[in-house]
């Protein structure tokens, strides 16, 4: 059963898939038979191409579409290129997101807008474009990648937490509406995931040094960090399950341990 291709014949688009969680999701979906649209910003061209190459070397199919999701045309082009180059779109994973530090006292309007344009406005536009295609076949799946910070969040990431809370409500409302077209919408709220970006945040932004992971593991009840592949497995579950819509999965080891600092 481990080698069963659950998504054979399907096409998936994964935003923010040049690295980190998104790359893990793209690779997992491709390994299960889906052809994949890999997305990243222009400056991530090299890493996006590496993900595409990895998928193709494993026998899968993938294309790369680049651009800043704050641009409406870029969002719509991701869906349109999936259809134009790969023939259809069955699965949309709204994974891309930005997280900048800021409290109510030092978050500028410009920073607030940047975070919301990427984390909430872009999933709206992408979903709108995808639904126009999916509803014709009365089939489709949208998976939004949120954060456990959606529930209240750390004090220093006000705008990010608010954007993920908004995404969670968006997921629930969209799922309710799209039942008429048999399009499923679900969300995964990752907790602390070990990615390239997380390493930079802890060593550079937080100043914890190169040994931060050793200390972090002491706080993990199951002895390891959550990995991009773990989140990818959850996406695969939602993508391949035809009966679940409107679900929000908090993927974290500490159910009531969302930090507030």
Give the number of helices: 8
Look up the CATH topology of the largest domain.
Rossmann fold
Question: What structural class should be given to the helix and strand makeup?
Answer: alpha/beta
Shape: globular
User: Can you tell me the number of structural domains?
Assistant: 2
Could you spell the SSE succession in H and E letters? EHEHEHEHEHEHHHE
What number is the mean pLDDT? Answer: 94
Strand content: 5-15%
In the CATH hierarchy, the architecture of the largest domain is: 3-Layer(aba) Sandwich
N- and C-termini, Cα separation: 43 Å
What is the CATH superfamily of the largest domain? NAD(P)-binding Rossmann-like Domain
Q: How do the strands of the widest beta sheet line up side by side?
A: 3-2-1-4-5-6-7
CA-atom Rg in angstroms: 18 Å
CATH class term of the largest domain: Alpha Beta
